[in-house]
From TrEMBL:
Domain of life: Bacteria
Gene Ontology biological process terms in this record: proteolysis
GO molecular function, one term: metallopeptidase activity
Domain Metalloprotease TldD/E C-terminal: 231-447
Source organism per UniProt: Novosphingobium mathurense
Protein name, entry field: PmbA protein
Annotated family: Belongs to the peptidase U62 family.
Taxonomic path: Bacteria, Pseudomonadati, Pseudomonadota, Alphaproteobacteria, Sphingomonadales
Residues in Metalloprotease TldD/E central domain copies: 119-224
GO CC annotation terms, alphabetical: cytosol
Length: 448
């Protein structure tokens, strides 16, 4: 695989080809990855996966018209054909007054922050197998576990490079390590399944495989013999496994493209009290070893730490350059690039500031409520904020967890949920969106 400097040169070369072919402006994104994974089930090797990929995409502009195209064939002939075809496509595309590269004066040129995303350790296939075996053995050793969906261990490496025709060029690499286990508890129609999973950039940051396996087994057994819940309004606590999804919905609604299309439930709510006073949601794309750490965005702008929510109020929209032009605002360094096409929106490492109370203290005054550990389905309306999802978890009775429950729906409206949200003190730091246990009062439960 190429190193980051070579990857940057590949992207620069394609931009130069596009300019020679007649593009008024262009940018190119190069991505490559390799990974190896081992899957174990019931103590036996079930699957070995080894993958390598390399892709480059080109976006060209002809006046206010643009087109994007990509290829995994990186030969000189293929790249010249790619550039010529992209320009032909752009000249036939409709005009877009908001499309274009980032303003040149806003580009970042380094030195880029050191994010410590590359682990020089490369586990051997045997080491990966041993890690997967240890995770499954630990899960199956938990009393009540009766079967296994398997355990896996993987390691990989990826490179991202961006170059533009007006002077930006940058690249960075990141390694990846993960361990997971999924097991079944119980017998017959009463079986329950659960899992545990962790991903890091550095293998030394992974919990032990035994810890991950034991957690998967303990979770599965805890779900046995679930009861039903009655319908009606009640407080709901969201476990850290799922609480980050609520912040994810907020981030989607803060996207500049959603605001420009007037399709966000946050429209016209800048400056309003969305959360309780004192609530803060912070972004830090430069957090070392963070899963969403990155030194620059998908248009060559600097990324930086900021509060997305401060004292319960949204501080601004998340803008790529096209949305910024449409809204008459400055881009915010949140552009992202995938395998091709125009930029999207993404954020760096996110966390919601914890509160002073532990989860036990947060539920102490709840006579009848729900503690949610799993969410099912995608019943969220990004335009209205209406929220309805299937769920499972545990009952809360007289301030304590009282047994598993399943097959119910929780519903509300995200704006009302945010206003009623109280964070606990148990913030964890190993996810891309790190959120403690959350209490939301007044949600509607639909059970039996």
């Amino acid at each position: 695989m190429l190193n980051p400097e070579q990857a940057k040169e590949r992207a620069q070369d394609l931009v130069a080809r596009a300019r020679r072919a007649g593009a008024d402006a262009a940018d190119a994104v190069y991505g490559a990855s390799s990974s190896e994974g081992i899957q174990i089930r019931l103590g036996k090797l079930e699957d070995v996966e080894r993958s390598e990929s390399e892709h480059i995409s080109l976006r060209v502009f002809s006046g206010t018209r643009s087109a994007s195209i990509g290829s995994s064939d990186l030969s000189d002939i293929a790249l010249d054909e790619l550039a010529a075809r992209a320009i032909d496509m752009a000249r036939a595309a409709p005009e877009d007054a908001y499309a274009g590269l980032a303003p040149e004066e806003l580009l970042t040129h380094g030195p880029f922050p050191e994010l410590d995303l590359i682990d020089p350790a490369e586990p051997s296939p045997q080491a990966l197998r041993e890690r997967a075996e240890e995770a499954e053995d630990a899960a199956r050793a938990v009393q009540g576990v009766t079967n296994s969906d398997g355990a896996s261990a993987s390691a990989g490496f990826g490179i991202f490079a961006l170059a533009t025709s007006h002077g930006f060029a940058g690249a960075y690499g990141a390694s990846s390590h993960s361990t997971s286990a999924s097991v079944v508890a119980g017998e017959g129609a009463g079986k329950q399944r659960d899992s545990a999973w962790r991903q890091t950039h550095h293998v030394e940051d992974l919990p032990s495989a035994r810890e991950i396996g034991e957690l998967a087994g303990t979770r599965a057994v805890a779900r046995l013999e679930p009861g039903k819940v009655k319908s009606g309004p009640m407080p709901v606590l969201f476990d850290p496994r799922v609480s980050g999804t609520l912040v994810g919905h907020l981030i989607g609604a803060m996207s500049g493209s959603a605001i420009a299309r007037r399709s966000s439930f946050l429209l016209d709510r800048l400056g309003e009290q969305i959360f309780a006073p004192g609530t803060a949601i912070a972004e830090d794309p430069h957090r070392p070893r963070g899963l969403r750490a990155r030194p620059f965005d998908g248009e060559g702008l600097a990324t930086r730490a900021r509060n997305l929510v401060e004292d319960g109020k949204i501080t601004g929209w998340l803008l790529d350059c096209a949305a910024a032009r449409q809204l008459g605002l400055e881009p915010t360094g949140h552009a992202s690039r995938g395998g091709g096409g125009a930029p999207g929106i993404s954020v760096g490492n996110i966390h919601l500031e914890p509160g002073p109370l532990s989860p036990a203290e947060l539920m102490a005054d709840i006579a009848d409520g729900i503690y949610v550990t799993e969410l099912i389905g995608q019943g969220v309306n990004g335009v209205t904020g209406d929220y309805s999802r299937g769920a499972s978890g545990f009952r809360i009775v007289n301030g304590e967890l009282a047994g598993p429950v399943a097959e119910f729906t929780i519903a509300g409206n995200l704006l009302k949920m945010f206003a009623q949200m109280t964070p606990a003190s148990d913030l964890e730091w190993h996810r891309a969106i790190n959120v403690p246990t959350l209490r939301v009062d007044g949600m509607t439960i639909a059970g039996n």
